[in-house]
Amino acid sequence: xxxxxxxxxxxxxxxxxxxxxxxxxxxxMTTAETHRTVNPATGECNxxxxxxxxxxxDDAVTAAKKAQRAWAKTTFEERRIKLRAYxxxxxxxxxxxxxxxxxxxxxxxxxxxxxxxxxxxxxxxSKLQLVEEVVTDDGARSSTLRYVPIGxxxxxxxxxxxxxxxxxxxxxAVYAGNAIIVKxxxxxxxxxxxxxxxxxxxxxxxxxxxxSGGHDLGPMCTSHPGxxxxxxxxxxxxxxxxxxxCSKTLKRITLELGGNDAAIICEDVDIEKVVPPVATFCFxxxxxxxxxxxxxxxxxxxxxxxxxxxxxxxxTLKVGPGIEQxxxxxxxQNAAQYKRVQSYFDDITxxxxxxxxxxGAWDKSKGGAEGFFFNPTLIDNPPEDSRLVQEEPFGPIVPxxxxxxxxxxxxxxxxxxxxxxxxxxxxxxxxxERMARQLEAGNVxxxxxxxxxxxxxxxxxxxxxxxxxxxxxxxxxxxNSQTVWLPSKKAAAC
Length: 494
Prior knowledge:
- By secondary structure, the protein is α/β, with parallel strands linked by helices.
- Helix content is 36%, strand content 21%.
- The strands form 6 sheets. A 7-stranded mixed β-sheet has the order 15-16-17-14-13-19-20, sandwiched between helices.
- Helix 3 crosses helix 4, helix 4 (108-125) packs parallel to helix 5 and helix 7 (217-223) packs parallel to helix 8.
- The chain is globular and about 70 Å long.
- 50% of the residues are buried.
């Protein structure tokens, strides 16, 4: 059922953050069935959100096809103006979106960071230039490479970063001349629904739409013959299913998948200086970041000192509900992920692993008795073939392992099917760079980790993804390339 249509009068209307709707063809739409998520910090029910049907998706695709034909004819400057107007309005809702993010499991400070990244992403995207390139010109004939819109696209958003990853798909999709249908995660649908509701005020009906739903909606999108491209961010297991489904209609795809990032700590580091950022990158967003540090390789000559310093610093990281502004580590985002992370904690006892810090659920007497909390946990030198080392827990449990030889530790860091990020920490920048350039990952850092910039391409190697997001290279992933061959004016006249 339609509640409102896109009109100029809406421009003066503030969004209502208490009710949530689909957006189809410039209208707010309800559905016969709804669902609620749970606030992972409190166990309280969040507001209802729509459960979309195949008919809802068909309607959205029909509207997108119609809208995209006209949208593709607009200039980059016209799209840039709309993106920037949208971004200006988006910025006025910082407090509202931060509250939504906290409701969905973020801490106050991480929600603020994510919102700032989202604003920056839209701004940075609108500055990009997709220019035609003359590849050859021999005087008789020239070839020119240009980038054209793909058509109807779809962004499948994960639950761990809905604020920045929703606009991270919307902005390049529409800037490149496509229409996009956003499908938020069933675990964190609220931010995406409101981001697109706001976009109604600035873009023609059908250019940006959003459908929330259950776990059946994603497969509907990947198999829909009217969708030309899927951009998916999420787990490797789901990414494989997305790729298989998209292959049946030869959709364009971009996959940004999980990682098992290694950080290599050399013996010459200033331990006191390095430990705080390393701990931060281990436990940021409760370890629920695709490029968080998942494995710590520490040189054997400083291993005990580094471990003790890391334990001491990690003890200072406050665990608790995200609404408290001094909280560093909030809850695991949802019940299914909590159960998965718990299985790695269960392995501690099963495998006799040595716990340096933490090792279990948070002391619920401190509050948040119904929340999905764990203590930050460090495991001292577990076996290399343990699940904790070989897999991505996506939670606040990190193994520390010893190493002695540069080539050996690089080989161990590369001994994984994943290749999203990795880092080397050393005062010898030349040595660190040599090691970093041998790491099999899409993003490598020296003396930092998880440092991202929306102007810089981001993607994974091996099972961590296909294609690239962000920056000019990422924008081109939302286009088809086209080569135009033309005779010279003189040749054409003959």
